[in-house]
Specification:
The complex is a heterodimer of chains A (about 650) and B (about 70). By secondary structure, chain A is of the alpha+beta class. Chain A has 23 helices and 13 strands. In chain A, a hairpin with a 5-residue loop joins strand 7 and strand 8 (about 285). In chain B, helix 1 (about 1-20) packs antiparallel against helix 2 (about 35-70). A two-stranded antiparallel ribbon of chain B has the order 1-2. Classes of the chains: A alpha+beta (about 650), B mainly alpha (about 70).
């Protein structure tokens, strides 16, 4: 049934695309849906565009693993719409025609702006495409049993088909349907979470028995650990600075497992963990046994103590009651962390180990973003919040949606519909994330599947629908991004920058060829970035967008002294500085497999540096080239 | 309205950095400060958007009446 529902969704989306594609005749139809979409439909389509894989999979996954810090993304993403509504929605609709480049170049007709804005659109779209493709790969593995890369290739192929058949019209209606269904079924999922209530021994509605992790008493003398219980042999003890502790490899009945060495009140306690090991011959083991279909990591995460009680009262709980119980200082949640190291035989070991977190720490910022840390860590938090606030109004695939409605008033109204829909959904993300955290459904190796796995704990129907919607989410968002990026190549670069002077049909053909090429790049990157939290990746895309595009849009609208060269320099400075800071940041060093403390840039979110730098560049270059504006004014005067 | 919301948002960041434990305390109906402030940022955004729309509609209405009067006059 799961596969049937999933296939129905995909075929429906493709059918809709082919139907609408048969009606698309002009380049305006292809790139901007003819500018005739109703504001209500466009508003929900905005929500569909915006509630991407990052919002649905990534935020829920991050809340499920680090609590409130994941919800910061929800707050920041929504707050960004205020910038879009009050600052850019209506002016942008007046200035542009098809693309972001049209808008920023409307006053100048500058080749420099065309090139810079088109490159910026491409860079931001590709940065945003990566997490969507990663999300696609994550979804198909439990759903269809396919490997990650097949999921990415499948999404790429379907999306290229959608974009190449109908462009913005089909993208809009796919997003409208998906956005509406996402909100409805997410609400249903939250209702199920509250109806089930909280438990200290979650068993997924009786489907998966709760697993009690063992603790073994041990003693330590002369650096040697001995297990008190007979039958256990200590093979090795590994000091792991990243975990601020050590792990012991134990052998029993020929099976080797890893245990966390816990020193408490002069006693040594070995706590059971989960592990993935790849030995020197390339053989893979999970929890000591060969990895395979019957042996995968156990799903984890649960409440250990609820308001001081180790046994939770049965029955449903109200939404506020759930949040209140989770934030109680006497509630303890067993979260799971992971750490990787090489053992004494040279095998690659990844250990997943539990840690208890009190509710009051879980339900406020601090577990991921160190608000009580060093000044640099605090700066990283400010930088993230700044980029989230300013990034929305600078995302090309969101900006082009302002061209699908007939007038500025419709642009404003559709933004308001979007704020209502997106705001409601983001409130739901907190409940879905916490639901996944307390129901023992998390895959410790990949947080991105939190929401679909939570749905599966309520039955296959909800799982199939939620997964299909999540897949459609990826399809819709990737379609929108590819339309934006192909518009940048075909309309901005080929037609307007190079000046090929293409006709309507040639423009559409160029857009479709570009869509194919960009889709191929997206597939490749989606495979490379496997396993990285998708919300984190989107946060970086927001930072690039806010740095490269927003200063140009704002100053164009509100400062008469802005020159074409100022905008061009600002866009290039924004792209180079934000990407440069990201590439050499601690989080990316971790991704490369390097020690993050050796990263030359001490923070991971570049916005606090790159956004002001881009703005200062614009002002400085505009002041230096202000004669350009006077010359332009003189030329314009009859 | 934009300045008000920006300050409200900046206030959230500032409280988290200057007094993070204040976000742990119960603020309203059993909910802690972080939850109440976070939800408020979402709800206030919607309320402001609706107020903005009402103001814009009133202005658009006035402008369309003005242009009709001018064309009739």
């Amino acid at each position: 049934m799961v596969i049937a529902i999933f296939l129905f969704f995909v075929l429906f989306v493709l059918g809709l695309s082919f139907y609408l594609g048969s009606k698309t005749r002009t380049s305006s139809g292809y790139y901007a849906a003819g500018g005739q979409i109703h504001w209500g439909v466009n508003g929900i389509a905005f929500a569909g565009d915006y509630l991407s894989a990052a919002s649905f999979l990534g935020i829920c996954g991050m809340i499920a693993t680090v609590g409130y810090d994941g919800f910061l993304y929800s707050i920041g993403y929504l707050a960004g719409w205020i910038v879009a509504l009050f600052v850019v929605a209506e002016p942008l609709k007046r200035l542009g025609r098809f693309t972001f480049t049209d808008a920023v170049d409307s006053k100048y007709n500058s080749r420099g702006i065309k090139l810079a804005a088109a490159i910026s659109t491409l860079v931001v779209s590709v940065c945003y495409l990566i997490p969507q493709m990663v999300g696609a790969g994550v979804l198909v593995t439990p759903l269809l049993g396919l490997a990650h890369h097949w999921g990415v290739i499948m999404v790429g192929a379907i999306v290229i088909t959608i974009v190449a058949t109908a462009g913005m019209t089909s993208t809009t209606y796919v997003q409208f349907l998906k956005g509406a269904m996402l909100i409805v079924f997410s609400f249903a999922l939250v209702w199920c979470v509250c109806a089930r209530g909280l438990s200290t021994k979650p068993d997924q509605g009786g489907k998966v028995p709760f697993y009690e992790y063992k603790s073994l008493p041990a003693s330590e003398a002369g650096g040697q650990i001995t297990v008190a219980e007979p039958g256990w042999e200590v093979v090795a003890v590994q000091e792991v600075p990243a975990a601020k502790g050590s792990f012991a490899k134990l052998r029993k009945d020929g099976v080797e497992t890893w245990w966390y060495v816990d020193h408490k009140d002069g006693q040594v306690l070995l706590r059971e963990t989960q592990s993935q090991v790849t030995d020197s011959q390339g053989r893979k083991f999970v929890n000591g046994a060969p990895a395979g279909e019957g042996n995968a990591l156990r799903q984890v995460s649960n409440i250990e103590v609820l308001r001081g009680e180790t046994v939770a009262p049965p029955g449903s709980i109200s939404p506020f009651g759930l949040l209140s119980a989770m934030g109680d200082p006497n509630t303890q949640v067993r979260r799971w962390k992971d750490v990787a190291f090489d053992d004494e035989t040279g095998a690659k070991v990844k250990v997943f180990y539990p840690t208890l977190t009190p509710g009051n720490k879980l339900m406020r910022p601090g577990l991921k973003f160190k608000v009580e840390g060093t000044p640099l860590e605090k700066l990283d938090f400010i930088s993230l919040m700044l980029a989230l606030f300013l990034g929305t109004a600078a995302l090309p695939h969101i900006l082009i949606r302002y061209y699908t409605v007939p007038n500025p008033a419709a642009a404003r109204k559709s933004t308001i519909v979007a704020i209502a829909a997106i705001g409601f959904f983001y409130i739901l993300t907190l409940f879905m994330g916490l639901g996944a955290m307390v129901n023992g459904v998390l895959n410790p190796a990949d947080s991105n599947m939190a929401a679909p796995l939570l749905a599966r704990s309520f039955g296959n129907f909800l799982f199939a629908v939620i997964s299909a919607i999540a897949f459609a989410t990826v399809l819709g968002t990737v379609s929108g991004l590819i339309v934006a990026a192909s518009g940048a190549v075909a309309h901005d670069l080929l037609d307007r920058f190079i000046g090929l002077g293409m006709g309507d049909k040639q423009k559409i053909r160029a857009g479709k060829i570009s869509a194919f090429a960009i889709g191929a790049v997206a597939i490749l990157l989606g495979i490379i970035f496997k396993g990285v939290n998708v919300t984190f990746l989107v946060g970086l895309a927001f930072a690039v967008a806010a740095s490269a595009n927003l200063p140009a849009v704002l100053m164009l609208l509100f400062w008469k002294g802005t020159t074409a060269k100022g905008i061009t320099a600002s866009i290039f400075m924004g792209i180079i500085s934000s990407l440069g800071l990201i590439v050499f940041s601690p989080d990316l060093y971790k991704l490369y497999g390097l020690d993050p403390t050796t990263a030359p840039i001490p923070f991971s979110n570049p916005g606090i540096v790159s956004i002001p730098l881009s703005l200062i560049t614009l002002v400085a270059v505009s002041l230096l080239t202000r004669n350009d504006n006077s010359a332009q004014a003189e030329t314009a005067t009859p | 309205m934009f300045v008000f919301y920006s300050l409200f948002y900046a206030g959230f960041v500032w409280v988290n950095l200057s007094n993070p434990t204040a976000m742990e305390a119960e603020w309203l109906m059993g909910l802690n400060g972080a939850t109440v402030y976070g939800f408020a940022l979402i709800i206030v955004a919607l309320i402001q958007a609706l107020i903005y729309d009402v103001l814009c509609r009133a202005r658009e209405h006035a402008l369309s009446n003005q242009s009709r009067d001018t064309s009739e006059g």
